[in-house]
From TrEMBL:
It comes from Dyella ginsengisoli. It comes from the Bacteria. It catalyses: L-methionyl-[protein] + [thioredoxin]-disulfide + H2O = L-methionyl-(R)-S-oxide-[protein] + [thioredoxin]-dithiol. Binds 1 zinc ion per subunit. The zinc ion is important for the structural integrity of the protein. GO terms for molecular function: peptide-methionine (R)-S-oxide reductase activity. Its EC number is 1.8.4.12. The gene is msrB. Belongs to the MsrB Met sulfoxide reductase family. Its cofactor is Zn(2+). InterPro entries: Met_Sox_Rdtase_MsrB, Met_Sox_Rdtase_MsrB_dom, Mss4-like_sf, TAT_signal. Keywords: Metal-binding, Oxidoreductase, Zinc. This is Peptide methionine sulfoxide reductase MsrB.
Length: 203
């Protein structure tokens, strides 16, 4: 175990003791324990219209903002999702799972680019907003566009958190916490298998 992993484990134990002392219930195994948790919910605002259409902010692979675009939310059968996603991505994105810390990729790529949803290719995060949170999961201080993610109140494990889902296909991505860096103070803690890095191309 590396020194960084040791420090993370010590911090997680400290925060777990503080959480349990306060009367909150939590489950081990891939969860991060933070003393300050909050929950927001924009799921109704991100709901598709009667035709199943949602309005997203579209981005080219060179990073250019293409403006609002109305697309049909991707809806697939479970068999189709299993064919489209890797087993690990299916577990996280379609079964609301969590990958093991330090098991994934995308820890601060060394070149510019953006992260898209592996399921529907919706642009989710700009690599420029990623930071090293020391948690073992890719972390960002903001999404590439608020319209491209769904924030949903999550009360599983006896905790109140804000889940993050892809607005283009309603797949689980991770959670957001209020212990991030400036300028937002937020930490979008994502599962690596729920992100596809696209290196920035020339305009």
């Amino acid at each position: 175990m590396s020194r960084t992993q040791e420090l993370v484990m010590l911090e997680r134990r400290r925060l777990l003791r503080a959480t349990l002392a306060g009367g909150a219930l939590a489950a081990l195994g891939g969860l991060t324990f933070m003393p300050r948790l909050f929950a927001r919910d924009n799921s109704s605002a991100a709901a598709p219209d009667a035709a199943g259409m949602v309005t997203l902010q579209c981005f080219a692979d060179d990073g250019r903002a293409l403006g609002p675009c109305k697309v049909k939310r991707l809806v697939l059968s479970e068999a189709e999702w299993r064919r489209r996603l890797s087993p690990a991505a299916y577990y996280v994105m379609r079964q609301d799972g969590t990958e093991r810390a330090f098991s994934g990729e995308h820890e601060k790529p060394d070149r510019p680019g953006l992260f898209r949803c592996p399921g529907c290719a919706t642009a989710l995060f700009d690599a420029a907003t990623e930071f090293d949170s020391g948690t073992g999961w890719p972390s960002f201080w903001q999404p590439i566009a608020a319209a491209n993610v769904i924030e949903k109140r999550d009360t599983t494990f006896g905790m109140v958190r804000t889940e993050i889902r892809c607005a283009g296909c309603d797949s689980h991505l991770g959670h957001v916490f209020d212990d991030g860096p400036r300028p937002t103070g937020l930490r979008y803690c994502m599962n690596s298998v729920a992100l596809r890095f696209v290196p920035r191309t020339s305009a």
